Amino acid sequence: MTPRFMGVAVALASSAILVNPAPWHVEAQAVAAVVGQSASVRHDVPLGLDLYMPVPEGNPMTAEKLALGRQLFFDTRLSADRTTACATCHVPERAFTDGKLIAEGVRGRKGTRNTPTLVNRGYGASYFFDGRAGSLEEQVLQPIEGEAELAYEIALVVSRLQQDDDYQRAFDRAFGSPPDAETLAWVLASYVRSILAGDSPVDRFRRGDRRALSLEEADGLRIFVGKGNCSACHVGPNFSDEEFHNTGVAWREGRLTDPGRFSVTGLDEHRGAFKTPTLREISRTAPYMHDGSIGTLEEVVEFYDRGGDPSPSLDNDIRPLGLEADEKRALVAFLRALTGSVREGTR
Ligand code: HEC
Ligand code: HEC
């Protein structure tokens, strides 16, 4: 599994002036504000995304780090028994998902959640479905020790890397020092930041190419922002407000199957609330939802049309929609038109 480099041009400057490149720019600034200590790095970003992505000041993106992070992302030596890599679950050909209901780590151990796509996570404000990680640097080491993921120890991964001449040399080039836990996190986070999806027919349509969408897809866009109320949560260049909502997916006959955001905040209204996922590349990332419980986009639309699943503290923006059959078809056609191109790594 060696996808080719798609060529994200990375400007190596660690700070850049924020100009106003895209209509959604205001929101990206909000993200930058959430990230706090951050500097912007200029990318050759795909159409539809904000030109400026927040990058922590301490970890500017460099070509060396991206190449190294990419190599590690595919390296099964990050797992105890050398069978599993990040890319085992986050499969590039599937927009960095795995097609399974629930992720399976070393020796087929089942986790509790569906593998999410990694596209455009550089624009994210928090990580995991419950937002328990505040930065990519914090997130990327956790799968190494997850029992149902790589089931290994960070210190032992680091010593494996220190024993490898190629990694030694590459870390030395990137940092002037041998691999350690911190630089391991930096390179993996940098690689994840480089995974960008955009340039879909929807983006071309919004830029002014009226023929980029069929009449049905364009109808779907109108329903998405209108009668369907989808953009109440799936909003901005990445079709996510980066907030947490209870849509009812985790509730079965009045019982909560996954606490979601509640396990982080302890707030009642967060029982069964999950981070709004991006909808980019959505036609390639089935099955859907944090538990993979919805298999197709048609079923997703049925789910929203009936007003989600019954649960206490259902989000105010989830309610029966009364969509006609042709409106449902148009909405699905629109979702499929969010498929564009995915870039990762550098050259
Ligand atoms: C066993 C499959 C599996 C492996 C291996 C795995 N992941 Fe994941 N990844 C998941 C699942 C499942 C989630 C969601 C977990 C949750 O929300 O609790 C996730 C979440 C993430 C997220 C957060 C995405 C978001 O939108 O919040 C990032 C980033 C990520 N993984 C990167 C990595 C990296 C880097 C590695 C390797 C060091 C890795 N993953 C290894 C399954 C896996
Ligand atoms: C109240 C906020 C909200 C509204 C309104 C909303 N969504 Fe969602 N959407 C979410 C959340 C949160 C999830 C994740 C739920 C989970 O994983 O349990 C989600 C998940 C999805 C997914 C699955 C994504 C994935 O990667 O698994 C799709 C597709 C989707 N929504 C489409 C839509 C469409 C189409 C509409 C309008 C008809 C809509 N959403 C309206 C918040 C919302």
How would you describe what is shown here?
The chain is mainly alpha-helical. The chain folds into two domains: 63-193, Cytochrome c-like domain (Cytochrome Bc1 Complex, Chain D, domain 2); 198-343, Cytochrome c-like domain (Cytochrome Bc1 Complex, Chain D, domain 2), CATH 1.10.760.10. 32% of the residues lie in helices and 7% in strands. It is built from 13 helices and eight strands. The strands form four sheets. It has a two-stranded antiparallel sheet with strand order 1-2. Strands 3-8 form a two-stranded antiparallel sheet. The chain has a two-stranded antiparallel sheet with strand order 4-7. Strand 5 (251-252) and strand 6 form a beta hairpin. Helix 2 (63-73) crosses helix 8 and helix 12 packs across helix 13 (325-336). The radius of gyration is 20 Å and the shape is globular. The two termini are 18 Å apart. 45% of the residues are buried. Mean pLDDT is 88; it is low at 1-42. The structure holds heme C (2 copies). The site of one heme C has 25 residues, from helix 12.
